[in-house]
Each structure stands twice: as structure tokens, then as C-alpha cells.
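task queued by scheduler; priority normal; single chain, no ligands, no partner chains; default sampling; output format set to C-alpha cells
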Amino acid sequence: MSSINLTIDNMQVQVEPGTTVLQAARQAGIKIPTLCYLEEINEIGACRICLVEVQGARTLQASCVTPVSEGMVVRTNTTQVRQVRKMNLELIMSNHPQECLTCPRSTNCELQQLASELGITEIKFAGEMSSYEPDYSSASLVRDPRKCILCRRCTSVCENVQKVNAIGPQERGFNTIVAPAFLEPLGEVSCVNCGQCALVCPTAAIHEKDQTAEVWKVLADPKKHVVVQTAPAVRVSIGEMFGLQPGSVETGRLVAALRKLGFDRVFDTDFTADLTIMEEGNELLQRIKEGGKLPLVTSCSPGWIKYIEHFYPEMLPHLSTCKSPQQMFGALAKSYYVEQAGIDAADIFVVSIMPCTAKKFEAGRHEMADSGHQDVDVVLTTRELGKMLREAGIEFSALAEEEYDAPLGMSTGAGVIFGSTGGVMEAALRTAYELVTGETLPALDFHAVRGLEGVKEASVNLNGTTLNAVVAHGLGNAMDVLERVKAGHQYHFIEIMCCPGGCIGGGGQPIPTNREVREKRMAGIYNADQGMVIRKSHENPAVQALYKDFLGEPLGHKSHQLLHTHYMPRNRH
């Protein structure tokens, strides 16, 4: 079908059929402000901030839901358009707490930014305001309905991307609130703690549960030996908190910044990502050889784990019994590391820096204490770490790069790529191929499992045995894969990451996190992998020493005791 010609602000524009006025304007380099809009996810025209004049139309039109037509004439910057946009925003702000100075999203709030752009200097409308109390019931997230502008972005992500439907509009009219059904506490429903809602919320109506005060307190306690681990994806996103480009690999500065904060040891979750490959890879090979439950599904993503517990409990036997790298690290820190360092396990405090809000929930699971102590004490998101560094006055971009501490700081490129969707699969294939065939892998990069396509499939020949693998990211795609398995598709190995893009798109990452940002972070992850001296998990000398001196062998008695776990069915509500 031929292109459509229209005029926007006296500019001739040519676009494809089905394009909206908003999309056409953006293609032409014309900015139209939006608030509720999320491309392909939430296109409902609810906020009325993107209004434009369309010649011949009786009223102003919401550009995000108005399709273009041949010969259309659009004006985006008339006096009427500016006045109505401003009035609509003032109406929204009239039912919004004036707490900008103390708000978690201060200086990174879309409502605040729009008010500045539209020249709002006072709230002209006064009246009754919503009075719902904040909900602190979740281990990961805080829901503050007072700051909700009813844009529906969070509900669209939860429904259309994650397919969880944990929250939605309740009540009617002025009393409308975004909440779980029947206004139940968020911590008591089938929310998976992924934080994708917080990632797209334009205000602070949903945000991570801040645990920075706990970490400041323990850092000031001379009786505590405080260690920190950093997830793979944090190194390619922490720079964004200080104005650096997404995907900038800031591993060395990240280590230096954490030392300046006062941590006694700075370790790398990539170390236990390598360890996960040793355990999970051998678990896969064991199931194939001995006729165990297939396909084997990865268990590194805590949001995904909670999802399968709620929605597909009958498929729990397919899950790997391996703990996530975060939890493996905690278990080793309070067993192997304290033994090596001569520290009482009761005196060590483990902090995780994660791109993920669900990790907060995971750390508190009762199953995660096989060392005799809680594996991980506190989880901070990338955003929370950025907050601490700013509070401490640390000039991140001015730091000289430093190295992780031994022994839990040595890792490989395979551990790094855990941060991106497809990374666990690729890391496992690098090791499984060489363990099975006894040959050196001819090419390390498995491009078939890379990228932001929702579901990716690959087949690998392992010494005459074809291993069928599939990768999914985002729980909507995970659901599709599980339904394929139930329908009889023959897979051996499945990687599922809860968040779109994997950990690079985690709910605790810097805001904004959109497709362009995910692509840049993903590129950073693979650049970091390319720059590593060792790129296969089984070649990590620190992991080899761990087995020799402490664990014995993969899937051995001690490994099972510390590094493996089980999961449980949960009610779906």
C-alpha cells in the first residue's frame, strides 16, 4: 500500500499507513509531549497531554491514538493546544502530593519534567484529594496511590507484557485506584516482584523498597565484616546514574566506588554465575543421560521462579534445582569465604547490588539459608546504589578503575553475559559442548540466542546428540514457551528471564529503560565479554580451586547442600 502524505506544522511528512499522528510527528523530528503513552504497550489517550489540532476535526485530538490520513493537516503548537495541555496537566497535578523535594523520583519524574516544560508555576485548581495509604506489604515494591496519575502504564505492562495481571484499576470515578483486585495488599497476591511497573511509572506511585539506610547502618558498625557482590548487568547501567551513556562498561569504577563507600570486600556475582554453569550444566547432562525430567528450565531469575510457582506449579519439576548466582554467592560467603578468611559467619553481612527488584524477595525466601544463616542480607537496586554514591559525594566518572577482590571476584566472559537474555544459555553451551565432546569449541559466540526477539530457538550438536534449546524473556513470552512444552514440543534446555531484555532491563535499573537503552546495555554486556581474558566458566581457576578445596565436585553432597534448593506451588490470586 502506498505511503500517506500529511502536513504537520507546515512540514510535508510521508509515513506508512497505520501510523499515528504522534509517530508521524516524531519521525519528522517534531516533539509532542506525552504522559500515559508507551509505544505498543499503552496507547490509550488517557492523559490528554498529547492533544493536537487536526484541520476539520471538531475538537482537539489525542495524537497517540489518532491515525494519519491522506492530506491531513496537523498543528501541534497553537495557542489553544498549549493552553489545553497546560490545563490538563494542572488538573492532574491538583490531585498530586506536593512532595517533590522528598520524593524518590525527584529530578527524574515525568510529571515534574512536563510541568517545567509546559511552564506551570502554580496549581490553579484546589479541592478534595485522594487519601489512600501507601502499601508496604511487598518485599520488593512500595505502592503509593497518592502519587498515581491513573496513566495505566503499570497495568498495561503487567497485563500485556508480563501477563501477570497483579494490579489494575479498582473502584470508579474520583475514587479510582490502581491496585490488586479487592484492594488486597500487593504482597499477598500473585505479583512476581519484577518491578516492570516501577520502571514505567512516570511518578513514584510504584517504586522499589529503599534499603539504603540498612546498608549505611551496617557499614558504620565496626563489628561487622561487610561484603558486596555486583550483578553482571550493573556494570553497563550504573554509569547512567551519573550522566554516562547506557552500555558504558564501568566495571572498574563500580569496584572503586563500592570501596569508597566502605565495603570490606568487593566481589563479583559473575564468579557464582560461572559456578551456576558448572552446576546447572552438569545437571542438564545428568538429566539427558539418566532420563531425568526434560526440558530443564533455568532458575536464575527470581521473578520467573515466583511466576511458575503461581501460574504453572505443575511444571516445577522442570526447574533446575540450582540457586541463582546471587544466592550461591551468599551461601559461599557465609561458608567457604568465612572459612578462608577466618571470620565468624555471624559477623559477616552480605549486600547485593542487583538490577532487579525481585532479588529483594528472593533474598528473604526461607529456602535461602542452607549455610545456617540467611544467604544474602540486603539487596540494593542499581538505582539505590546510585543514590548512595550521590549521598556520599563520590564523583563516579572521576574514579580510577580498580579490581575485584579474590577469591570471589574472579570471573569469565561467560559470567558477564548472564546479564542479557540468552546469556545463561550461551554460557552453558560454551561449557556443555567442551565437557561432552572433549574438544575446543570452534566459535564461542552463539548469535542464535542473542537479541531482543521474544523467543529464540537453537540446536547444538553435542557429540552426536542434538540439544534443542529455547530462550524467552518477559513473562508473556515465557508463557508461550511453557504452552509449547505442554503441547509436546521437544526441548532439552530452556532459559527464561523475567524481564524484557533480561537483567539489563530489570526493574531496578536506571529510568528510563526502553528498547533503545536495552540494546545499548546489551551491546555493553557483549563488549565486556569480548574483553575478558577467560570466556568459559569451566576455565575459571577460582571456581576450579573452589571445587578442589571445598565443594568436591559438581552436584556433589556439599554442592547440593549449599548451592541447590527447591521451590513450591503458590496460590494464584
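post-processing summary
- Residues 115 and 370 are 51 Å apart (CA to CA).
- The first strand starts at residue 4 and ends at 8.
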